[in-house]
Sequence to fold (840 residues):
Amino acid sequence: MEKICVAVRVRPSSREGSGNAFQWKIENNCVSLHGVHNTPISGMSFAFDHVFDQDCSNGTVYELLIKNIIRSAVEGFNGTAFAYGQTSSGKTFTMNGTENDPGIIHRAVKDIFANIQQTFDREFLIRVSYMEIYNEDIIDLFAVENQKLQIHESLERGVFVAGLREEIVNSDDQVLNLIQLGEASRHFGDTNMNARSSRSHTIFRMVIESNQKDTNSSKGSSSDDAIRVSVLNLVDLAGSERVAKTQAGGVRLKEGKHINKSLMALGNVINKLSEDGKLRGHIPYRDSKLTRILQPALGGNAKTSIICTVAPEQAHIEETKGTLQFASRAKRITNCVQVNEILTDAALLKRQKLEIEELRRKLQGSHAGVLELEILKLRNDMLKYELEREKLATALEEERRSHKEHDQCIREQYMKIDNLSNLVSLSDSEKGSFQNDVTICLQDGSMDSHSMSQQKGSSTPCYKAAPNVFVAKRSQYLTQSEFSPLPDTCSNFADEDTWMKMNKGFIVDLDSLHMTPARKVQSFPSSEDLSTDNYSQEIQNLQRQLNLVVEERDEFKRKYAEQVSFNNQVTREVSELQREILHIREFPQNLCELVTNCKDIYKDVFSILQDFIADERSAAAQILSTTSEVGLCLFSNLEFHLSTFADGKGPSPTIDYLSVQEQCSVLCKRLNSTISKLVIPDGSTLKDEHTTGSLISRTVKLNTLGEQIAYWKEAVENEVATVKQKYNDLENERDICNKLLEISEGKYQSLEREFHLLKEDKEALLQRILNLSQMLELVTGQKDNAFQDLKTEVRRRKNLEEEIRLFSIAFAGRQRSLNSFHGDFKALLDTMKSSLSKPR
Ligand code: ADP
Ligand code: MG
Fold:
């Protein structure tokens, strides 16, 4: 039995009140009201465990009032600390503190982790939650969307807030950050923060679970395998002034609308609990959410400290009196605190063995009546175990069924994967550059699972030790929704007396706890039809299929490379043809240039010839100039045609030809007329010409004029024919060029078309490859998931089998020891009976 620890803290006065008639004085953990002339007012003196004056820091309050609770919480005892007092008396200052002087919550969090660091033989799992009770609604400060949460009670969990978020934490900084976030959401929820905070309670809760680190090294301690669960509540209550006034004035109902129901119920509960145990009636814990949640802390199984904060000003005397009266009543409450344990089967068995040993010892020196009672108790226990075993067997059966369903699910998943694989293997198109990724994926398959499992292990919070089954198991267990346990021992009694009655039998209480919830999650039935071999065979099948898919993808890749090289070749050919076309297009231009050159040479030759002829009016000179003109005209004509052809807009060859012939005839006529003009003049002209150049002399040598004309005509005709011939040759050549050009252009266009088609094909192929790769990725992802599921499944099954095996061994051992004890005991009884029946 342990009294609640109550302290009063007086905050610094807001005004220097020298003119105050009444003043609160603090002396040796006593606080008393003094009137004028410093005279103490009777009935206004209160003594508490601690009274802190205005100079006292949060650090001192923590050291003297809370530190002890925190240490005990780490050892497995429930703990609660709350601040009670009127608005602005310093509750929040005490609980939250300031940056320079951190409050109780901050210090407690730091201290818990420091204590854990010091506890080398146990491993811990810490969960935190933060809630606000405002107008009788419970609001989750870690998840603001969780409003109006309900309180539930069950035999296994005790009283708990359903749906409250609990965060698993592993460092003080993490907790403090979470609190900050919680505070932020509290501010976010309401605009008038002060008004709200004076009417709302905040409960910061830490659940500390621990178990012995190395069970093998333990030497017969009865609770080595037990899991300790303790709950620590740090509460900042709403302002108490209304309650104080209401209770003083007795107009509770009138203010019912505004009064904080929880705080009123707290006052009532404290009142009831402070009464004499025998007179005390029903304790109204259920009247409010706050008292329901704090039930174990008030008259139950928790080490509790209350800090009553008061304001020293004269204006607040009534409220301060109310607070001090509340504190005095609270001082009278006693709690019965004990470590909360959840017993595993092994721990229970160990404890049982010790009890048997104890009984054996007792047997040797006590009388038969007591022994018979003990035997009866043991038999009852045995029956209980039998019942429990049956219960477990049924649960096992149920889980086997669910396992089969799960297997069915996995098979369906495999079928899905198979379908997808078939889809991939049926596809006849190429695969892209994603091969490497996939191959790496496949190769790393086994490694991945390994590293994954390692990651999983390391993500579980654990202190000072490698990840171990306890922490993992408890964390897993905690993922169940709505789990916010309070130890059973705290919740199934209505008041102190009932609690006392229930706690007389130590084992009875623990029995109600020993069904560890972890079993619920862990158990998964072993299936005899489906063995691990089947799974590994299926995995191998899947891997084979994947290999096939990869081979096909290689094939696609090869084809793709071929296609690319073909494309390149075609592109090369096209560019060669383009070059040729350019060449052909340049040909007429070149011809044109050639003709111009010839024309220039021709001009030069004639100008030289004309230089030889002295008389410009001589017949030879005239013929020469006419011939030169004719030639130049023909050259110009040729030039013109070639240039128009080179420009690609020349007239049709037939029309050209006609025009040339016409021109020719015109030229012939002109030549003839020139010659005939030359024939008419006297021979003197001819004589003069006799001395000139070789050509003329040759002409002069001719005997007759007719011969001369015929000669010149022939010469001109020959020349015209040559030019014509040349022109025809050029025309033919041009036609050939044209044809070639046409063919080339046709070929070029068809190649271009082909090239475009190939380009489109290539793009389509690339798209297809992309799609296939995505599909492959998807399939690979699904397969990975399936592998993971399988592995988890196999692991879970192994765990379960191990559990069943351990349980069977334990049970067999238990039965053996009981049987042997029974035999021993019978033998002893027989001996005793025979010794009693012997005549003295
Ligand atoms: P409550 O939470 O009870 O309404 P607060 O904690 O908000 O009151 O305190 C009201 C004001 O008084 C705050 O400004 C706070 O800083 C100041 N205060 C309260 N207690 C102390 C103290 N012990 N020392 C210094 N300042 C204090
Ligand atoms: Mg406050």
